[in-house]
Amino acid sequence: MTPVFPRAGVSLPTAVRAEGVWIEAADGKKYIDASGGALVVSVGHGDPEILKAMCEQADRLSYVHASAFTTEALEAYAEELAPVLPFESPFVYPVSGGSEAVETAFKMARAYHLARGDEGRHKIISRWGSYHGNTRGALDASGRAPLRAPYLPWLDKSIHVPAVYEYRCPLMTHPNACGKEHAVELERVIEEEGPETVAAFIAEPIAGATLGAAVPPDDYWPAIAEVCNRHDVLLIADEVMTGFGRTGLWFGVDNWSVSPDIIVAGKGASSGYWPLGLAIASEPVGETVAGHGFVHGFTYSHNAVGAAVGRAVLRRLTDGDLVGACHAQGARLIGELRAVLADYPLVGDVRGRGLMIGIELVSDKTANTPFPRSRRAAETVVEAARERGLLLYHSTGCADGVNGDVIMLGPPFIVSNDVLDQIVSLTVEAVGVLR
């Protein structure tokens, strides 16, 4: 029996090597990584330039405490990152992952308001059907019921507004002006709570695993940004899954030309080569917080090796025009999936942007009826795909917090047309086991 505390309660194969879009197990079987892990791997596995940058930095300097030193790697990374961000003169706070980045962003928001004398602003508003991480504050803001349920005695500090979920939109105006209606509801909640008590609103530009790449209507983000700005509520864009090219543009908010106050990122920032997360403040927020003092920190924040890896991934994305490749390959993949699954009775929706694609499974397509949780539809499809050498990602509870199954695809941006064709074919085969 292994002494490792398992992430999953099933026996797992042992991965021994990976290259490009392929992962090889100890028994010699190869798998197409069609989900990039958890939509993490963007530039592909085993990239020699990224591995070289990691090793060279570790050889020179692996660790110093951020309260004692900065490093050349960190300064260079922040400098090269700035031009691709959706605001100018950013303040970059590197941490070890998305959850830490969200916690950092919440504290930044609180520190910003304290520095301006708004001591009453402490409340965080988020959405149901969201996921922001598994640390306590991030989980409290998250709106995924199954993940929250065991820890509810520790939660319920955050305030939630309805999910933005066009496939199951309950608004009377749907499909017209849904985004503006959501903004009206956010404003109603801010005013009900008292604007002087609200610090920030956090949301994923495109919903991640909880709702399976659910894209908001085009009027949503501009209207939300206007409400937040009018009430001096900081807008935090959770770009942990959408950031660094995953939607076919550098950041998810770029799809709507919105400039948030704070961005949180992870996953694609290091493409899985290093545990790296980022909380990035706009100039007004960063200057205000830095000038007043920020009571916060982690042992491994501002890590030099992480910065070197992030910089190498950034260069790979830029020099190889991989963000453009993601846009093109994403359009091809979602187009082919929609074409072959259009008449499939157990697929309700194929959605997404770039190489962030969700397939919602339903028991009745006419009524959008979800499978009951007891059917384990998503797990069945994922296992069928694994047997065929294809790795997919899945989520459950999308319809009502318990029922509802989504399959997600998010291969590395370097995926070829031939492999895309294999992904489509094997995905259709795997979904077919539900018949």
**Total helical elements:** 13
Report helical residue fraction. Answer: 25-40%
Question: Would you tell me the overall average pLDDT?
Answer: 97
Tally of strands: 16
Descriptive account of the structure:
- There is one protein chain.
- This protein has 435 residues and is α/β, with parallel strands linked by helices.
- The protein contains 13 helices and 16 strands.
- The strands form 3 sheets. Strands 4-10-9-8-7-5-6 form a 7-stranded mixed sheet, sandwiched between helices.
- Helix 7 (178-193) packs parallel to helix 8 and helix 12 packs across helix 13.
- The longest helix has 20 residues, at 322-341.
- The chain is globular, with a radius of gyration of 21 Å.
Key terms for this structure?
single chain; five-stranded antiparallel β-sheet; globular; 36% helix; 435 residues; alpha/beta; 13 helices; seven-stranded mixed β-sheet
Topology (elements, then pairings):
Blueprint: E1 15-19, E2 22-25, E3 30-33, H1 36-39, H2 48-60, H3 72-81, E4 91-95, H4 98-115, E5 123-127, H5 136-141, H6 145-148, E6 159-161, H7 178-193, E7 198-203, H8 220-230, E8 234-238, E9 262-265, E10 277-281, H9 283-292, H10 304-319, H11 322-341, E11 347-353, E12 356-364, E13 369-370, H12 377-387, E14 390-391, E15 393-396, E16 405-409, H13 417-432
Helix pairs in contact: 2-10, 3-10, 4-9, 7-8, 11-13, 12-13
